[in-house]
Amino acid sequence: MAGSLLGAALVVTDAYGGGFSRGTADTDILFEPGDFNLRAGTSVVVPSQKFSAGTDPALIGTNYLGTYVIPSTAVKFAIGENLACAGTYTEPFGAKSEYESAFGLAGKVSEDLRLSEFGATCAVFFDAGPGRFAVLGGAFVEQVHYDLDALPVPMGGLPLNVSLEGRDEGWRAGLAYEIPEIAFRAQLLYRSGTSYGAAGTASSPAFMIPGNTLPAIGMGELPQSVELKVQSGIAPGWLAFGSVKWMDWSVNETLTVSVPLAGIDTPNEYYWRDGWTVTAGIGHAFNEQVSGAISLQWDRGVSTGFDFRTDKWLLAGGANIKDARGGELRLGAGLGYMTSADVTKGQNAGISVDAGWAGILSATYSITW
């Protein structure tokens, strides 16, 4: 019942992390009872944050953030009593912007960064005292997809379209201890960072060649992370939970997009600091079929003055409903708050945004055999 108490609320909080964070691989399925478990779901995030100052009056009062969807799928197989392995899929990072008027020197009209993660993780369990100890380890493949539509000032405002793809591999490892009788679990999980040299094409009528298309490349770094999660029963039918997550966002200095044959080199300037995310919540089982949870999350902004990624808050809640077929439906909702931000450094200095809001909805269904 512990997983049921907090599952939907945590799906929502995972969808609203700092920096470029989006989904998290569902490795918690390794701790679910049963020989075979399948869990799949989707979160939809609708953010809004409007420009309040800048050099282009056409942007003032307009929202620049795009709606995005985060899928998550996990399948677990138990191999005896002391070994379980899971395959997972999610989109761990991303950023989506859409502008009413061409933004900045790069003349951005829309920009979409998405990363897909395919992972496999196993847990080995050992009896220890009143509970059991677990060692987790696994690997993942991460694929990056990047699309840019722009009207760059240096190109005379002629349209430019860039599409890039790349991949890298990483690994995760962790330790956990749980006492199922009191719904206690403490887990420390590490995820490695990734590096990209994405490749693709750039198209523009400014390229005076047949097809108007040239090779393009992109380069960037994504962070490693460490997360500590703790939960425990505090009374019959009640569960408290919390987590602290560190992400090495200081590796993200620039994301550079280049078209070498055209002499185009456009770095997105970030120079972020490390990120910290703190979550706390409580769950309650109303009966054997229905439970729910509520949580509050704070994310320390990673911005150092080059962009708008300042502090965020999230209030999230979820309900879990078990059906007669042995399945479980998790429904979650959240309201996020983004603090106002001023760009004080770099090529976009002088641009500001007001505080903003984000609405989040999620639905997940799981079944156990």
Which structural traits does this protein have?
globular; mainly beta; Aromatic hydrocarbon degradation protein; 63% strand; transmembrane beta strand; 14-stranded antiparallel beta barrel; 369 residues; 21 strands; Porin; 1 helix; 3-stranded antiparallel β-sheet
Describe the structure.
It is found in: Cell outer membrane. Its main location: membrane. Pfam families: Toluene_X. With 369 residues, the protein is mainly beta. The mean pLDDT is 94. The relative contact order is 0.19. The two termini are 16 Å apart. The strands form 2 sheets. Strands 1-3-4-5-6-7-8-11-12-15-16-17-18-21 form a 14-stranded antiparallel beta barrel. The chain has a 3-stranded antiparallel sheet with strand order 2-20-19, with no helix packed on it. The chain has one helix at residues 2-14, and strands spanning 36-48, 51-53, 68-78, 83-103, 108-128, 131-150, 160-179, 184-191, 194-203, 213-222, 225-235, 238-247, 254-259, 264-269, 275-285, 290-299, 312-322, 327-338, 341-342, 352-353, 356-368. It is built from 1 helix and 21 strands. Helices cover 4% and strands 63% of the residues. A hairpin with a 4-residue loop joins β13 (254-259) and β14 (264-269). It has a single domain, classed as Porin, CATH 2.40.160.
| Overall geometry | globular
* Overall number of strands: 21
State the CATH superfamily name: Outer membrane protein transport protein (OMPP1/FadL/TodX)
Q: What fraction of the residues are assigned to beta strands by DSSP?
A: over 45%
Roughly what percent helix? under 10%
Structural class: mainly beta
**CATH fold field value:** Porin
Unreliable stretches (pLDDT < 50, length at least 5) are none
The separation of the N and C termini measures 16 Å
Mean residue pLDDT: 94
Structural domain tally:
1
Please count the helical segments: 1
Question: Largest sheet, order of strands side by side?
Answer: 1-3-4-5-6-7-8-11-12-15-16-17-18-21
- CATH architecture label: Beta Barrel
SSE string: HEEEEEEEEEEEEEEEEEEEEE
